[in-house]
Specification:
elongated, about 20% strand, 4 helices, about 240 residues, alpha+beta
Length: about 240
């Protein structure tokens, strides 16, 4: 468990460093439309020509000096935790369970589900969230008159839109059709989600499925965790 926590800690640290570099690069290319990624106060109230020429260099220096100091403090906090883990909190919250180290144990919802009902509007939306394999996942379920709209996202956007329907007669063999309405058409794993969910919905409802899905992690454990959460009786709004 300690090894996996260390790995997650530094993976997130490297990701935040990468985001900082991207923000700095965006500022350098478009300084008028992007703010500098670190608050910097110049000592010059009215910059002279010499102050103007050195401002960019001093901003870069202040930015990375602050970054190195924060990295140093993070390493110190991690070292102190390693020496005495019982009396010190881990320096970064992780999703690992204390009872199991398998990927399934990481699929426990980060917060309880929420049911939203808008005043004056008949729509009801179920909001869910879970963390699986280190990826935070948001899920929204909204029933309409002829469709069930489900959003599954790890990227804070709807992503690819897929329409799925049940085909065939009630007494004949059951089949399902999926059509990519918008977005990526070459990722078969997204259609797998759509087919599994329309199969679940069709067990108790004739409604079609409109799925918006955007994933970073396409592993089987992620699919299992998401499907199990949506298929729970309390989350079926159809």
């Amino acid at each position: 468990m300690s090894s996996s926590r260390h790995t997650e800690f530094w993976d997130k640290w490297r990701k935040s460093e990468q985001e900082a570099r991207i923000a700095l690069r965006a500022y350098e290319q478009h300084p008028k439309t992007h703010s500098f990624p670190l608050k910097y106060k110049s000592s010059c109230d009215k910059p002279t020509s010499s102050c103007e020429t050195s401002r960019s260099t001093r901003k870069h220096s202040a930015f990375w000096d602050s970054w190195r100091e924060s990295e140093k403090q993070a390493r110190i906090a991690l070292r102190e935790y390693d020496r005495d883990p019982k009396s010190r909190p881990f320096p970064l919250k992780t999703s690992n369970s204390s009872t199991s180290s398998t990927s399934v144990s990481e699929t426990k919802p980060v917060y309880s589900s929420k049911l939203h009902r808008s005043a004056g509007c008949p729509l009801t939306t179920k909001q869910l969230a879970l963390t699986v394999n280190g990826c935070h996942t948001d899920i929204l379920i909204t029933p309409f008159q002829d469709k069930i709209f489900i959003v599954i996202t790890q990227l804070a956007k709807i992503g690819t839109m897929i329409l799925a329907r049940k085909e065939g007669e009630e007494e004949g063999p059951t089949s399902f059709s999926t059509t990519t309405v918008l977005g990526k058409r070459d990722e078969e794993v997204l259609s797998v989600y759509a087919r599994a969910l329309i199969g679940l919905i069709s067990q108790s409802s004739p409604k079609a499925l409109l799925l918006g899905i955007s994933l970073k992690d396409h592993s089987p454990s992620t699919f299992k965790a998401i499907f199990n959460l949506i298929s729970s009786p309390e989350n079926r709004l159809w």
